[in-house]
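Dear support,

Our group has been running a series of protein-ligand predictions, and this particular one with zinc ion is the one our PI (initials K.S.) wants archived with full inputs and outputs. We had some confusion internally about which version of the output was final, so please treat the block below as the authoritative record. The input we submitted was:
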Amino acid sequence: MRYKRNILASIAVMLCAMLVVAFCFFPGKIKVTFYPLIKAVGGAMVYDGNEGYGSISCNDFIIEYPEDKRDVAYMVLDSMESDSRQVYDFFSYRPAKPVEIIIYDNADDMRDALHISRNRTVQGAYYMGKITILSPYAWPDAPKTDMEGYFRASSPVVHELTHMVVDEITRGNVPVWLTEGIATYMEYRIMGYDWTADIDVEEPYSIEQLTKDFDKLDEYQAYRQSFLIVKDMVDRYGDEYIVDILNSMGYGKEIGAKLLYK
Ligand SMILES: [Zn+2]
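Confirmed final output from the archive:
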């Protein structure tokens, strides 16, 4: 019995060692192979039948919402239904199952569920296969009237849906700057809105800096540059070019400045 256990332990150690070696040589391939499993486990932790929640289900979306925020659930559904097709068409993508959306009515609860710092601004987020939206009633500049018009004008739906599609295509093998640049570009393209337009870039970051240290750089400048790089790529080479890059990343290819520019 003990002999058998020793053999099993040795096999487990060998498999772990092989995995570590494989990761060193083929990090992209290992990432895209195991990512769906990691995402399924992480996603279950964001929403697991939150207390006092209702649900709207249709063919394309499942929206979980605090019971007294049914109006917000319908605002989100409306925004999803009107904009999702344009996002999917750009990437020639169709989701295999309904998109899951969770609405929070408290910013701190949402930050805690996503494991992000309490001092970061949140309106929407994509995390581990699920889209989360903060109720616009809890946004800092929420108006007293015309909540629907206010939400429609600054809806985070296009941005977050784009993150979801990019994540699915690349199987998680995408640097933060690139997915943020693409999500910001899609807002500009579909909603006609570029919130980075007034941000000055005096000393541009390199693609290497954006890739390695996105979260440590000046947030506004990093978003501005990510948007500009993506826009430049689409303007030069067309929509399909960026989609092809994402598809190759989904097969485990590592992204770099050389891959981005022909
Ligand atoms: Zn984003």
